[in-house]
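> @MW can you paste both from yesterday?
MW: sure, first one:
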Amino acid sequence: MIAAVQAAGIEHPWAHQARAAEHALDGDSVVVATGTASGKSLSYLVPVLSTLLDGAEAPNGRGATALYLAPTKALAADQCRSVKELSQPLGHSVRAAVHDGDTPFEEREWIRQYANYVLTNPDMLHRGILPSHPRWSSFLKALKYVVIDECHTYRGVFGSHVAQVLRRLRRLCARYGASPVFLLASATAAEPAVAARRLTGLPVVEVADDASPRGELVFALWEPPLTELHGEKGAPVRRTATAEAADLLTDLTVQGVRSVAFVRSRRGAELISVIAKERLAEVDRSLTGRVAAYRGGYLPEERRALERALHSGELLGLAATNALELGMDVSGLDAVVIAGYPGTRASLWQQAGRAGRSGQGALAVLVARDDPLDTFLVHHPEALFDRPVESTVLDPDNPYVLAPHLCAAAEELPLTEDDLALFGPTTEELLPQLEAAKLLRRRTRAWHWTRRERAADLTDIRGEGGRPVQVVEAGTGRLLGTVDAGAAHTSVHEGAVHLHQGRTYVVRSLDLEDSVALVEQASPSWTTVARDTTSISVLETDTEIPWGDGRLCFGSVEVTNQVVSFLRRRVITGEVLGETKLDLPPRTLRTRAVWWTVTEDQLDRARINPEILGGALHAAEHASIGMLPLFATCDRWDIGGVSIPLHPDTLLPTVFVYDGHPGGAGFAERAFHTARSWLTATRQAIASCECEAGCPSCIQSPKCGNGNDPLHKRGAVRLLDVLLEGAPEEKTDGAEDEAEEGTEEAEAVAGAVAGASEGRGGRLSAPAEGAEDAAPDQEVPPVP
């Protein structure tokens, strides 16, 4: 340990670093949950490097090994550079290497045989390392530590998948006689030990006292000004957060301030880069090359080149997605611009913490988008600065998550009854259904995988719903990049504007069967936004409580979504130029939802007649979806909603908000348990908006499949008032209770997994009759 600390050039580790390292060396799994730039990496590098340097011998004669997991390739590559720099004075005792999808095949065999510190991601562990465990046997036999960096990102359906991947890893390690210690690093989070325990399935010691020095951070909340333009239904339109962030990045670059602008979407990152370059060309053309975009979907060589330019200081300004939020060492930044609330307070502070990493003062600016949540936050800063960060929500027992991992585990090693406790209580219920679907076969006391194809290919752990769509330049055949399958219908449909490396393309055709989008370079003055329709049916109501005369429910639903058209909008102003119809197939999923109903008596008390009922429900639904990320650890794209004046299953006016992932991700359940606070904030956000009849800051959305019609602002406020009159007090205990799944749900899961095995992508049955009459919400997440 002394040699490792000296190699790191640190005489006296901070208290939290020393505490965490001591626990790890004593054999305790530990989670370090401290602020950005608090030296969390040293907390796990000290025990890892000291163990590798000590040459602790495993039974097979190979030195001790360690495995590092990062949520992004960029972070793994960045950490590998740091480890090599630290271990250089120590000779060749530490052999660190990155093993991911970008690693050349000729290097992979050397890594399997000789590397003792392998840096990878959960995707490669799931698809590459665990299915090939006999080839990794010497590494797994000697595995001493598993490092899980930025573990707060493992939430929702992705986190649930990673939790099961880690259980598969623990099972194989036990088969080879190893019992590794898990070392987790996280941004500050509520109850980090609880989240780490759910992720790993192991008891974990929590270290959360941050002893690192901090520079002053000036945090500004920025609301773009209103323009003279008017949007749908004559609503006032604010200047876009994208345009404001681009101007701020331009001004900071001109002044020589090293800055990153974080953007919610890949397209947004490209737009900010393009606008900033245009602005800089008007001031000093030599500065245009010092601003770039960074996002997923780039080719590996493009990403590595941008990372080198950022580290060297060649780039002054970067417009990036959250790939740079996750721990990459971008020391030396002076300012961070955040274009739109990133969805959680944890992500907000993580992004803001990218500036001032060397202890110096820094600037962070949150630029509000024109939507209910962002508007609420800039007018209620106490919701950001006076509240703790959120708990991490994940559900490893989600049967849609667990089923394919049971199949993968059975292919790796036949499942036995001794494995049931490891994979969770839902396992015993699912195994007979997987047998009935002819995915597993029981022989004596073990379950075996029955198919020829790889079981690991049954699921995409990031929930992206299949093979990525390749974006190909039509004239040259050059591969520009990829788009996630779940987002292809909305982002690379025919006629869509696609941005790549600052260049603009228009999609000529989308071939869903071959997963290819052909594009050609163009220079349109607009961008495109997809419009979709959604219907929903209730499958099972798990919990139902009275809210006065109304009801609040939680259970299983089936959602059908179809992209039907797209809008053309001016880049800077957002002005709508026209709408074009599309012919794309519908997609369905079974998921979890929270919904509430109101009665005729409540409508009478709220003075809501049939003419305005649809608009009041629709407006309340829009705003409640926008506000939920303040109460659940989710992104707006993780959730969706539907409202209908008379739903065929409830026979009452009903508003649904659902998880946008098969089987659910825990967000709707959190909404159910915090419904009083959530809907109170929703009512406040609508009522406090200065507009007369509704605008994007309260009840409108550019993604509404119904074109924001009908909407009734005052009706929504009165509706929520009468609903909240009967709201019971919230219970703090039980918010994380897991709903039990019935046999019918297990059968549906097994059928979905079998469908994926047969190449049908896990598509489920059609919705109940009458569900197509529902009015869709404004934010429908991609349906896998």
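MW: second:
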Amino acid sequence: MLGVVAAMRRTLLSCTSLARDGAIGLAMTALLPARAAIAAEMTLTQAVSDHFGLNHQEVAVLATSFALVGFSVVSAILLMRTRVRATRNEERLRSDIADLQVQSDRLRALLFAEPQVLISWAAGDNRPQISGDISLVMSQEGSPQRILAFGTWLPPEPALQMDHAVDALREKGEAFLLNLSTSAGRAIEAMGRAIGGQAIVRIRELGGLRRELAESNLRYKTLQEETELLRDFAAAAPWPIWARSIEGNLRYANAAYVRATEGASVTDALQRNLELLESDQRTELTRALNDNASYAARLPIVVSGERRIYDVQALKLTGGSAGIAIDASEAAALRAALTRMVEAHRRTLDQLSSGVAVFDADRRLTFYNESYRRLWGLDQSFLDSNPDDSSILDRLRATRKLPEQPDFRAWKAKLHEAYRAVESETYTWFLPDGRAVSVVTTPNLEGGVTYLFDNVTESLDLARRFDGLTRVQRETLDNLAEAVAVFGSNGRARLFNPAFARMWKLSPDALNGEPHIEAVEALCKPLYDDAQTWRTLRESVTAIENRAQVALKLERKDGSVLDCMTIPLPDGATLLTFQDITDTENVERALRERNEALEAADQMKVDFVHHVSYELRAPLTTIIGFAHFLSDPSTGPLTPKQAEYLDYVTKSTNALLALTNNILDLATIDAGAMKLELGPVNIGQAIEAAAEGIQDRLATDRITLKVDIEPGIGGFIGDERRVVQVLYNLLANAVGFSPHDATVTISARRTGHSVVFAVTDSGPGIPPEMKDKVFNWFESHSHGSRHRGAGLGLSLVRSFVELHGGRVRVDSAVGKGTTVTCDFPVDQTAHRNAAE
């Protein structure tokens, strides 16, 4: 028991000494008593068992009880000591935390003394930690989570640059420093570093000196880049570029300047101070730069032995001047060509009958031609002042040269939609003065509108007249009794009238589909199937060359006869006409037969007269001869009664002989067998010979003959015997119809191409219904005449005059007399005969 106690004491002492080592050895101190207790328990159990004779189970229970009591005591003591130490440590920890808080606040105050944002990523962690003034990098409607979406607060290019820099920092630990500008226009600095296994990005706004320094660095960098870029550009530019000092010495020249001045190199050009411009040009340039800050002129410069045009630009700088010469030869040539083209276009447009007006994007008149001015009657000075479109329309409206509109403002606004259109528009204006004007508005590529005006009054009038004419022609064709069909150049029926369908017994539906001529032929063959005729019609319709009119006569199976005509039309079509001439053909056949019968009868009459006249002449000649023989005193005296009878016989036989001769002459002329014996005809002698033949009648009827011959009338070529016979018959006819104590006048005058004979009497005249019959054979009108004749005198007159190539005219008034006029041609060199 004492041993156990001693062991426990030693254990406590050990634990107490161990506890003094501090809180760090607390766990080990607690563990050691436990082990000792186990060992003590084992020793104590053995001692008690040996000393008191207890069994091991009893000894174990007793030892366990003592051990638990000792552990409890030790634990209580240790707990108290731990609490005391923990209280002290907590106080020290609170003091350290307070110090750290103060230090942290001081560092935060220093860190965020200006607007900035810290973004950190731990290694292997994609979730960033964000602190600072997030309003610096966030729009008002944004959220902290959108800070890493750089495109929400940075422009596209800086945002992409920021994304690449952050990715390189997190993946490779590459630091960066960027000066950027936000979408709101704020200048910021973004710095990235890898610290303690973390990627940290600091974003702060640049202000004050740092901002100015950053901007200065940026400007310097930009200026340096621009300078290098400009140097490279100037060196590679194809135009001569140079710079000079205030003294005028060449300080810079590019390769193009060296080539233009024929220098060996840039150094050579600078050392030799080669000049591009002539002396007078340099003088003018220097004077211009002294007066102004810039110089611009188009100058001729000789480059490589060739004279070219250059646009020279020079600027006055602080340390001298700089210039550039741009080759404008092609531009000048193109400008001159363009100017010539524009002038040619203007002259061409001025020759147009259409009015042209061009308005620019500001709706002001930039061009017009003379036709435009004449069309609207506008003053040239007004048009030359470049008026706007609205002003011109207002002036035209004031002079009532625009269509009447209920809402002129809306009409004008609709017209001006052409300035915003992409397609042309066409209008037709009907003006108050009766004119019709076609208006085409065409938008220009460079802005503005081109107006094209055409006076279409005549065109519309012609169109209306053409339309009316077409309708009239259509109605005319539809109402023609003649069948008409028009076939196009392709052989198809383009037009037909109802008479065509009726004549060939065709239905309108069969022709509405524009059938081919072959189809029409098949439809018409039941009435007429002559292959040769249809082939001729097909060739007339489909022929391309040698198109001519073709006339055909068709005798159909139904007994009708058609007169067909094909007429080529100018457009390549062919007109076919069919006329039913059945009745005409029948009448013509009957007339032909009757005419043949009449001609046969007339020929019989002529033959009869011809033969009988010759048979009569022989006995008359015998009778006349014996009458003359008996009247001759040498044959012996006659009694008065015998002499009277013999005189009657002589007169009667002479009259019968004259009648027989006249009939024979007419028969000869009618048979075409008479020929004129042409020769000189003395007009006075011819009239005298004719008058001598009627002297006995003049004396018997107490008729006075008045002869009126134009002085110096001369003669003409003709058959003198027939001319005398004509005049004799005219005088005999006039004497026969003249009353006693009357006067018969015969006159002769010459015109430009003929000799005119006129015989006038004062007889009863010829009734109008008899005028056309007085020249017929055996037509004797004895009313008012003392002598009844056979009616052959005027027939012979007309026959002989017409045989000479002349003509006969009768002028008569009932109760006032009659005048018969005969015109004989002066020239009879072309011999006429009865056959002609």
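> thanks! The first strand starts at residue 116 and ends at 121.
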